Amino acid sequence: MARKDDLLTLNEIANLAGVGRQAAAKWHHLARKTGGEPPLRLVAKAMGVETPEANDDSPRYPRRVVVAFLQAVGYMNGDESPMERREGRGKWTPTRPTIDPRPIEAFDPEEQGEEPGIEEQDAEASGAEPARKPLDVDRSTGRRLRYYNAHAWEIAGFGSENSFTTSRTRGRVIDPDGIDELERPYWFRETLEQWAQGAEDRKAARFAGPEPDGFTVEGQPFRLLPGDNYYVKKAAGQAGRASKEKPSKQGGRKAT
Q1: Residue 146 pairs with which residues in a beta bridge?
Q2: Contacts from 156-163 at CB under 8 Å and sequence distance 24+?
Q3: For residue 250, what is the DSSP state?
């Protein structure tokens, strides 16, 4: 039985993932276009694991690093069983949420932008230390789950994956929490749920029309009409003077 500290060659990594050796070689040496080290080295760094054997003529990686990588990108489930591939064209996305390789201790809940719930607000009002909602994690590993387009749209409150993808293209979706080792965007559940909570406010703002030009002393909003605007009046005056200075094209012919 394989141990977590076993060192795997590229051939063994390919066999474990069910891919060709060329794919494993890319995971070892091909740097990401979006920046950062090659995928396997990136995961090892995230886990805080040294990989001096990766620099050998025959590169080898600790098995636990390889497993964490395969779980992170969607080749393997939390129990180390193979994850089935999702059908579809273009860059494939995992069938289910994947597992972030970083330990849970690496995350600060306050950095995730979690809004306190009613119980937490009551605790804050009473002066007690509020109990934060636990992060969404995989039960097998205890590490955070990553959600891709195929899983994120419903949590974020969209009607379909297509509407989520289209909205993201138009800049109407919250930025992803990260870009995975194969350069695909992902979100954490807490980010998506917080985004969904603000859906009504964003919709109201979108249909509210433009902001008023100012407010009266009584606090009533007002809008400047073109005739009331100083800059509009100034532009109109300049246009009028220009038309008077322009020579006329009409006139009699000079007598001979």
Answers
A1: 98
A2: 156/187, 156/192, 156/195, 156/196, 157/195, 157/196, 157/199
A3: -
**Cα–Cα distance measured from residue 51 to residue 41, given in angstroms and rounded to the nearest whole number:** 8
Of residues 114 and 231, the one with the higher pLDDT is 231
What pTM does this model have? 0.70
129-137: long-range contacts at Cβ-Cβ below 8 A with a sequence spacing of 24 or more?
133/190, 135/104, 135/107, 135/109, 135/188, 135/190, 136/188, 136/189, 136/190, 137/104
Tokens of 145: 């789950």
Q: Determine the Cα–Cα distance for residues 18 and 116; give it in Å rounded to an integer.
A: 43
pLDDT in tens, 127-170: 555 566 788 999 989 999 999 999 999 999 999 999 999 989 98
The DSSP output letter for 95 is: S
Radius of gyration of the chain (CA): 30
> Do strands 7-9 and 98-99 pair parallel, antiparallel, or not at all (unpaired)?
unpaired
CA distances from 99 to 8, 63, 66, 164 (A): 21, 16, 13, 22
Expressed in percent and rounded to 5, the helix, strand and coil fractions of the chain are: 40, 10, 50
Closest to 68 measured CA to CA, from 95, 32, 102: 102
